[in-house]
């Protein structure tokens, strides 16, 4: 098995800037200027979200500090506590009351609540942790809690990127205008995932701790803070915190998974209806990803099991890992290969998912095994520590490149994926940030014609682009261009 | 089984519906039996003597009397589901006035169903009580020697059955008869498994209030009912009075009834909404085809299933899509495609017209010319030529001046119009006062509701046709689809424009109805689906859009509202 020693080591203080026709170009970190090599990304928005650009997050308690406490009657106080902090806090307050009957009744009710909670805990241990802790532990983003950038999502058809930040807002940058809408509302707290809706230019779904909000941003209006009233708010009581969401390729269904609920929900967003996919294994799910062809869907639970679903009949293929859980997974090779990494082994695995009839049964066939593709154990390359357990990995839309962020080390590894004769992962470049910068999340641009464009969100709020460009790109839509058969002229000539 | 690979045989709509409905009816009846067995098994619980427990259960279940008891119950359930079945498949008539609504509620059909619901409620409780044994297993008890006394507990519970049946029919069955298609179509057993929990929970919570109501009613009127019953059958008072636990029994049996009925509804939903593959080519004159069924307004469920099938095949089945892109063998005509596009456009146009009619937009007389007339600029050299053809028309413009019409005395006209106006306003006034308007006047937005209730048809049909059209770019070798592109795009744009007008209907705004209103949500869903379909077509044909002969307004609309690029 190949390992990280195969990577070419950049010179001191240099980092990989871009790859053109298979050749990686390096430059000094301080003077890095990508336009020396290519102008393909010169229109891309320059994003650096500094601390002073962040909005203060409100917890709702700020106003309280301004007022002096006053003595109000017990009933009034109880009502206030109930409305502000919920029924359990109200019971706690009632318990401290000096009248014996009230405090006893409250005590009994509290005990009942405690026992119900205990039973629920036995059924699902995940609910002990609060939402942010679960997201931090199970999510894709590295150091989710402290990172400025929490998620990056590229628009499927235009050069437009949505960046979720730690101030519970989503900023949308686009290449053709300086207009940068900010999506922010009271309900949207602790963002975990953002997904643009396919077959639509304006809609974007934001998954947060308590549910999903689908925003509708009218590009013809210049309102910088679109209102949530045009959007759709989706939530279910048990289904939280929502860890990951994925749109169906036709944009009509949305799949969501959550850490405290092992049911996978498939939403019809407009009608606010759900169908649930429920199978045994795990207490919750951490990741859902649709294959590029749209025929399959992978979901990873927080236990040993991960599943590959067939989109036509919603039957699943069950896979188990030996220990830990699947930390990250991505599709490659036109949706026939699944690459994944677990929380216990520093290895990239590959699974070849067969088409169609394999989904006839729910059982796992023993002949199939995941193939270890690449060993990413921690190594020391000329003073730079690289590798370790994998935090997140992504493939580009064509399935030719793979980018990986590690849990403990701060380099981003970029690989090439070779399909012929067997599937192979070949080291390409190591990317490093400035000092003190840690990579948080990465994402590939969806419509980059010149090749692939990786974007890395660093912990300090900077987004770096790493374009991989082929100048001799002969990507024709048709292998055999149609002959003059069309009614209309332009159909007869290829546009490419 | 991958159902996209199987070749569907031909069938008529009767075969299809009968098959689906019979499955639903049979599973309802079988489940009732199963629930009864479970109940008997649990009520005979004896943990210390498990073998005895098993045997006693078996003895009860195999005894002749049990089956005699069960027979009427199963017959009622069978009859009930048979009659309900009709409700699910026939065309629902939309009542545009309150009076119509009122009449339709008191139809013979509904009265029979109501009666069946009521009887089923009582029989269910009586059956469960008498088979399982226990304190309330009989209405009468042998007391004081050879005299029969009334067991009030049993009487109370059986009476509650009548009430719950009635309540359920009024509250749930009449209000919620429509079928809901699930978001994804899983195997039936999995759907059952995932729904079972919520059905149980629903039944328990929803049966709480009717139980309370009944307990209250019985508290008020119970004595007179008991006296009446006793005097009819000559029964005596029983000394043993039911204790507080009877209320839990009441709730339990009511929940059980709700559960049974909900399960029946669930089965109908499950079997009727299961996707069907329609044949795309006609086999013989009776058999259904997909193209025909799309506009089969007589059988809404068949129409819905056909649209769903179109949506699914457009997305998944390249083999079935190919059928539309082939030419007929003698003749070389794209019959399959023509038939499909004709019917889908008919569906879309009818929907658009219905929408326009309801939003009170005067119907456009001049249909937008689909094919843009070529702009021919006359060459400069013909500038000085007179157009001789036009001169002849001047002859007809001569005005006759010799006979000036005499001024007529028009007071009578005036008077009549004034009188009629006054009369009509008086009639209006009388109508309002007498409540005639209330009863017979058109309900506000009844048509819009009717439109939106059929929303799924448009959601599936528009996405289906858009998918087929976008796949045609690579799969349609003969360019069959291209000739209909302008029509498809224009009708979808027209539909989208009509849908946008719905935003102005006050009864459909979020402020009026809130997020949870079905009509509000459906409006959003249909609009979004049509928008996605147009986007899909525009995206696929993006580079060729300028070459498709579209009306300027349509093109402009696509640019600003769908592609959203200036």
TrEMBL record, chain A:
Residues 133-469 form the Aladin seven-bladed propeller domain. GO terms for biological process: nucleocytoplasmic transport. The lineage of its organism: Eukaryota, Metazoa, Ecdysozoa, Arthropoda, Hexapoda. One of its GO terms (cellular component) is nuclear pore. The gene is LOC115891597. It comes from Sitophilus oryzae (Rice weevil). This is Aladin-like.
Automatic annotation (TrEMBL), chain B:
Belongs to the NDC1 family. One of its GO terms (biological process) is protein transport. Pfam families: Ndc1_Nup. The chain crosses the membrane at residues 21-42, 62-85, 106-129, 154-175, 240-259. It comes from the Eukaryota. The gene is LOC115884594. Its main location: nucleus. Coiled coil: none annotated. This is Nucleoporin NDC1. It comes from Sitophilus oryzae. One of its GO terms (molecular function) is protein-macromolecule adaptor activity.
